Automatic annotation (TrEMBL), chain A:
UniProt-listed InterPro entries: ABC_transp_permease, BCAA_transport_permease
GO molecular function: transmembrane transporter activity
Superkingdom: Bacteria
Name of this chain's protein: Branched-chain amino acid ABC transporter permease
Membrane-related topology note: Multi-pass membrane protein
Native organism: Actinophytocola xanthii
Lineage summary: Bacteria, Bacillati, Actinomycetota, Actinomycetes, Pseudonocardiales
Automatic annotation (TrEMBL), chain B:
Protein name: ABC transporter ATP-binding protein
Native source species: Actinophytocola xanthii
Family from the record: Belongs to the ABC transporter superfamily.
Molecular function as annotated in GO: ATP binding; ATP hydrolysis activity; branched-chain amino acid transmembrane transporter activity
UniProt cross-references to Pfam families, sorted A to Z: ABC_tran
Domain ABC transporter, residue spans: 2-234
Lineage: superkingdom: Bacteria
SMART domains: AAA
CDD domains in UniProt: ABC_TM1139_LivF_branched
C-alpha cells in the first residue's frame, strides 16, 4: 500500500514533466504539422545555460529565467532560419531536418559544455515530507514541478483563449491561407509558436534536471516519453497532452516500481504502439479518425 | 476602383490565366462568370496575392497591389472570401468575427460586432457556438460578415452560392446588393450560377480557359442568347 | 562498388547497361543483364577490397571492417527510406539484436561456424523486423518516426533488465573464432602472409557487404523495387494498380531490418563486444544522416555515407586537436558536421530527396507558393 502510494506520487510528478514536454510538441504540431524531435536537445541546451549561470554563482532563479528566455530565443531562431525553409509537403524531410538539428545541438553541447555528467541543483527539498513516522514520496521540488507545469497550462489557456495574439496563433495553425487573407502575419505567428513551445520544453528540461545529473543526452528519453504522451492525447490537443503526460507518468512509474526500471522505455513503446494501432486519434478522440 | 491589366498566372506548367484585363467600378458589382476550370478562382487568388502573376498588374484605387504581401491586403482595403468559404471551424463564431477586425490592425469594437449581428441576426444567436455547427448558409454569412469587419473597399467573393439552397442564395445575393448600395462597396463576384449573379451585377466578365471572352453590361450579357448558351449555361 | 539502384523516379528511365559499355564480345556478354553486371562488379569490388586489406595494417583493416558493417546497415536503410518512403529511426535497435544474437552464439566452447552465426544474426533481426514492420506499415511520417525512435530507446534497456543472460551494462564479450585454415592457406598462397584476425574480419565484412548489395540492387531493379517505388510515390495509385500496400511496406521493412541485423553481428565481431552503450539513439540517427548525405535510395550513396561515418571522426578529431580542443570535445566535430550537412541537404538539395520521397497525395490543391513561407 505504502509502495503503491509512493509509486503513484512519483508517477504524478513525472507525468507533469512529460505533460510539459508533450505540450511543447503539441504546440508546434498544431502550428506547423511538424513533430519537433529536436525539442529534447533544445531543452538540454537551455538547461546548460541555467547550469552555467548557477555554477558561476548566480541564483537558481536567475538561471531558471535565463533558461526559459534562451528557450524563447532558440525556438524563434530555429523556426525562422531552419524550419521555415523545409518543404512542408514532404512527410519525411521535416523529420530528417529536426533529427539533423538533434545531432547538431547534441554535438554542440558536448563541444561547448563537455560530455561529462554534472549535477544540477534543485531550489526546493528533494526529501519526502514527514507525516508521523512515514515519509511520503512528495518532495518540495515535486510540488514545485506540479505547480509550475499547471501554471504554464493556465497561462497558455489564457493566452490562446483571451488574447488577440492567441487568436491569431490559433487561426494560423488551423488555416494559414484564410489567416493570411485576414491580414494575420502567419510567419510571425509560427515563429512565436515555436518560441513558446521551446519555453515550455525548456521548463521540462529544468524540471527533469533538478536534483539530478545533466549531460548532453539527458533529455533523449524524454523526447520519446513526450511524444508518446502527446500521441496518447491526440497530438493536436494541449489538454490531451497534459492528460496523456499524466497517464504515461503513472503507467511508467508502475512499470518501474513493479516490473523493472530498465523496461520503462519498452513499456512506453508498447503503449505507443497500442494507441497508434487501436485508437490512432488518441485516447480522447471524438469521432474523426486520423491518418497516422 | 479595382483595375486588372493583362494578368497572367499559372501553376507550374499550367497556365490558368492568360492576359486578363477588366475594371471593377466603385460601388458596383462586377460578376466574373465562366465554366468550372475557367480560371475564376485563380483570378481572385492572383488579385489577393495568393498566386503570384507571371505578367500583368492589379491596382486598387491607384495602388499597385503587386507590392503588397497577402498579409497586407486587408490593410489596404481588399477582402477576399475564398471558395469553399474559409470559415475556421475550430474557432467559435465570435472568434471568427474578431479575426476579421484584427486583421486590419484594429481591435474589434462593440459597434462592429453590433453591426455584424444586425446584418446577420442568425449569427447573434450563435456567437458562442463553434463555427463547426453552422449550416452552409450560416457559414457564408459568417465569412461575409467577417470580411466586412475589416472595412474593405473591395470585396472579392468566390462562388458564395456554392452548395446552397436557392432560397438561401437569394438571401445572400440580396444582402450583397444591400451592402453595395448602403456602403458604396465594390464587389467582384465570381459565380457559376450566372443567371443569379447577372441579376444583381452591374457588369459581367466572362472567362474561358483563362481568357476574357467578353465583358459588358450585365443586362447585355443576360440578353445575349448565344453567349448564354455557349458559356453561361442558362 | 557500383551496384547502383535507379536514382530516377520511374524504373523505366534506367539506362541499359550495354549502352554505357563498349568493348568486345566478352564485355557485351558480361554486362548484358543487370544481374550479370552486378556480379561482375561484385567480383571487381572483392578484388579491390583484397588489395586494400592486404596493403594496410591491422588498424586500417579494423576501420575497413567497420565501414563494411556501416555500409550494410546504411544500404538496408536507404532502400527503406529512399525506395519505399518509410522512415526508421530505430535501425540501431536491429543492429543491437543482431549483435547480441552473434555474441550469444559465439559463447560456447565449440561455437557454430561464423557463417551460421551471421545468418542467425540476420534471421533474428528479420523476425524482429517483421514484428515491427507489421505495426509500422500502418504508420506514416512523424508517427512512424516517433514509433521507431521509441524502439531505438527501448531496446538497449532489455539487456540491462535481463543482465543475467545478456550481461547488463558491461555487455557480452565476443570471442572471435579462429581464422579457418583454408582461408589462411588461401591468403598465404596469394600474399605470402598469414592473415590476422582483423584482416579476416575485414574480408568477412566486405564479403557480406558485396553479397548484400548485389541482392539489394537486384531487388531494387526488379518487380519488388518497382512496387516499393510505386507505394512511395503515390499510395492511392499503387493500390488502384493492385499493389498490396501493407505487404510492400512490411517487406521493405523486413529486408531493411535484416541488413541491420547482419551489420550488428559484424559489429559485435569487430568490436569484440555487444553492450548497450554501443547502440544508443545516436547510432540510429547517424545511420539516417549517412544515407541522407549519400543521397537517399542510392546504394553507392550508402557506401559513401558509411565511409564518412568510419573515417570522418578521426579526421575531424585530429583537426579539432590541432585547433586546441581536448580529444573528448574534438570527437564531437564529426557528428556536428554530419548534422549540419544533413540539414543543408534536406533544405537546399531537395531534388536529391524531396523529388523521390514527396507524396503527391499530400500535396495541397491550393497554392503553388509553398505554404510554409511567408513575408513577415
Ligand atoms: N493548385 C493548383 N494546381 C494546379 N492547377 C490548378 C490549381 N488550381 C487550379 N488549377 C488549374 O487552373 C485552372 C483554373 O482553375 P480555377 O481557377 O480553379 O477555375 P475556376 O475557379 O474557374 O473553376 C484549371 O485548369 C485548374 O485545373
Ligand atoms: Mg473556382
Amino acid at each position: 500500500m505504502q509502495q503503491l502510494f509512493t509509486t503513484l506520487l512519483t508517477g504524478l510528478t513525472l507525468g507533469m514533466v512529460y505533460a510539459a514536454f508533450a505540450l511543447a510538441l503539441v504546440l508546434i504540431w498544431r502550428a506547423t504539422r511538424i513533430v519537433n524531435f529536436a525539442q529534447a536537445p533544445m531543452a538540454m541546451l537551455t538547461t546548460y545555460v541555467a547550469l552555467v549561470l548557477i555554477e558561476a554563482g548566480y541564483s537558481y532563479w536567475l538561471g531558471f529565467a535565463a533558461a526559459l528566455l534562451s528557450g524563447l530565443v532558440l525556438g524563434a531562431l530555429v523556426e525562422r532560419f531552419v524550419i521555415r525553409y523545409v518543404d512542408p509537403r514532404s512527410e519525411i524531410n521535416p523529420v530528417i531536418l529536426t533529427l539533423g538539428l538533434f545531432i547538431v545541438l547534441h554535438a554542440l553541447a558536448a563541444l561547448v559544455f563537455g560530455a561529462r555528467y554534472r549535477s544540477f541543483p534543485a531550489p526546493f527539498g528533494l526529501r519526502g515530507f514527514q507525516v508521523g513516522d512515514t515519509t511520503i514520496a512528495l518532495t518540495g521540488f515535486g510540488i514545485f514541478t506540479i505547480l509550475s507545469v499547471l501554471a504554464v497550462v493556465v497561462l497558455l489557456v489564457l493566452l490562446f483563449r483571451y488574447t488577440d495574439v492567441g487568436l491569431k496563433m490559433r487561426a494560423s495553425a488551423f488555416n494559414q491561407e484564410v489567416a493570411r487573407l485576414l491580414g494575420v502575419r502567419v510567419g510571425r505567428m509560427l515563429t512565436l509558436g515555436w518560441a513558446l513551445a521551446a519555453v515550455v520544453g525548456s521548463l521540462s528540461g529544468l524540471l527533469i534536471a533538478g536534483g539530478g545529473l545533466v549531460h548532453p543526452s539527458f533529455m533523449d528519453g524524454v523526447v520519446v516519453y513526450g511524444f508518446v504522451a502527446a500521441v496518447l492525447g491526440g497530438l493536436d490537443s494541449p489538454v490531451g497532452a497534459v492528460a496523456g503526460g499524466l497517464i504515461l507518468g503513472l503507467s511508467l512509474s508502475l512499470v518501474s516500481g513493479y516490473v523493472g526500471s530498465q523496461l520503462v522505455s519498452l513499456a512506453a513503446l508498447a503503449i505507443l504502439m497500442a494507441v497508434l494501432l487501436v485508437r490512432p486519434g488518441g485516447l480522447f478522440a471524438r469521432v474523426r479518425e486520423r491518418r497516422v | 476602383m479595382l483595375s486588372v491589366r493583362d494578368l497572367t498566372a499559372g501553376y507550374g506548367a499550367v497556365t490558368a490565366l492568360d492576359g486578363v484585363s477588366f475594371d471593377a467600378a466603385e460601388g458596383e458589382i462586377t460578376a466574373v462568370l465562366g465554366a468550372n476550370g475557367a480560371g475564376k478562382s485563380t483570378l481572385l487568388r492572383t488579385i489577393s496575392g495568393l498566386v503570384r502573376p507571371s505578367r500583368g498588374s492589379v491596382t486598387l484605387a491607384g495602388l499597385d497591389l503587386g507590392t503588397v504581401p497577402v498579409e497586407g491586403m486587408a490593410a489596404v482595403g481588399l477582402a477576399h472570401v475564398p471558395e469553399g468559404r474559409g470559415v475556421i471551424t475550430e474557432l467559435t463564431v465570435e472568434e471568427n468575427l474578431r479575426l476579421g477586425a484584427l486583421g486590419r490592425g484594429g481591435r474589434v469594437g462593440a459597434a462592429d460586432l453590433e453591426r455584424a449581428y444586425s446584418l446577420f441576426p442568425i449569427l447573434a444567436q450563435r456567437y458562442r457556438a463553434s463555427a463547426h455547427v453552422l449550416s452552409g448558409g450560416e457559414r457564408q454569412m459568417l465569412v461575409i460578415a467577417r470580411a466586412l469587419l475589416a472595412r474593405p473597399r473591395v470585396l472579392l467573393l468566390d462562388e458564395p452560392s456554392l452548395g446552397l439552397a436557392p432560397r438561401i442564395v437569394v438571401q445572400i445575393f440580396e444582402l450583397v446588393q444591400t451592402l453595395v448600395r448602403a456602403d458604396g462597396l465594390t464587389v467582384v463576384l465570381v459565380e457559376q450560377n450566372a443567371r443569379s449573379a447577372l441579376s444583381i451585377a452591374n457588369r459581367g466578365v466572362v472567362l474561358n480557359l483563362g481568357r476574357v471572352v467578353v465583358s459588358d453590361e450585365a443586362a447585355a450579357l443576360a440578353g445575349n442568347e448565344r453567349l448564354r448558351h455557349a458559356y453561361l449555361g442558362f | 562498388m557500383a551496384t547502383e539502384t535507379s536514382t530516377e523516379t520511374s524504373a523505366g528511365q534506367e539506362r541499359p547497361a550495354h549502352r554505357r559499355r563498349r568493348g568486345g564480345r566478352l564485355g557485351a556478354f558480361l554486362f548484358a543483364t543487370p544481374l550479370r553486371r552486378h556480379l561482375v562488379l561484385a567480383v571487381l569490388a572483392m578484388v579491390a577490397v583484397s588489395v586494400a586489406l592486404e596493403s594496410t595494417d591491422a588498424f586500417r583493416n579494423g576501420q575497413l571492417a567497420a565501414m563494411a558493417y556501416f555500409g550494410i546497415a546504411a544500404g538496408g536503410l536507404t532502400v527503406l527510406v529512399g525506395l519505399n518512403g518509410q522512415i526508421s529511426l530505430g535501425h540501431g535497435a536491429f543492429m543491437a539484436i543482431g549483435a547480441y544474437t552473434a555474441a550469444l552464439m559465439l559463447r560456447g566452447e565449440n561455437p557454430l561456424p561464423l557463417a551460421v552465426v551471421l545468418v542467425a544474426a540476420a534471421a533474428v533481426a528479420l523476425a524482429a523486423g517483421a514484428l515491427v514492420g507489421v505495426a509500422a506499415a500502418r504508420l506514416h511520417g512523424p508517427y512512424l518516426a516517433g514509433a521507431t525512435l521509441a524502439l531505438a530507446v527501448a531496446v538497449p534497456g532489455i539487456p540491462l533488465h535481463f543482465s543475467g543472460v545478456l550481461g547488463g551494462e558491461q555487455g557480452l564479450t565476443v570471442r572471435v573464432p579462429a581464422v579457418p585454415d583454408w582461408f589462411a592457406d588461401a591468403v598465404f598462397f596469394v600474399t605470402g602472409q598469414d592473415p590476422g584476425r582483423s584482416r579476416y574480419l575485414g574480408y568477412v565484412g566486405w564479403f557480406c557487404l558485396v553479397v548484400t548489395f548485389v541482392l539489394l540492387a537486384n531487388l531494387a531493379r526488379g518487380r519488388v523495387g518497382r512496387t516499393w517505388r510505386a507505394v512511395r510515390d503515390n499510395e492511392v495509385a499503387a493500390e488502384l494498380a493492385g499493389i498490396d500496400l501493407g505487404r510492400a511496406r512490411v517487406l521493405a521493412f523486413v529486408v531493411s531490418a535484416t541488413c541491420a541485423g547482419l551489420a550488428g553481428g559484424l559489429l559485435a565481431l569487430s568490436a569484440r563486444i555487444a553492450a548497450p552503450s554501443g547502440f544508443t539513439l545516436s547510432l540510429s540517427l547517424l545511420l539516417l544522416s549517412a544515407i541522407v548525405l549519400g543521397g537517399l535510395g542510392s546504394l553507392p550513396g550508402a557506401l559513401v555515407g558509411a565511409a564518412l561515418l568510419t573515417f570522418l571522426p578521426q579526421l575531424a578529431t585530429t583537426l579539432g586537436q590541432d585547433l586546441g580542443l581536448s580529444d573528448v570535445r574534438a570527437a564531437e566535430l564529426a557528428p556536428l558536421a554530419y548534422g549540419l550537412v544533413t540539414m543543408l541537404v534536406v533544405l537546399f538539395a531537395p531534388s536529391g530527396i524531396a523529388g523521390w520521397v514527396r507524396r503527391r497525395r499530400t500535396s495541397p490543391s491550393s497554392s503553388p507558393v509553398p505554404s510554409g513561407r511567408h513575408e513577415t
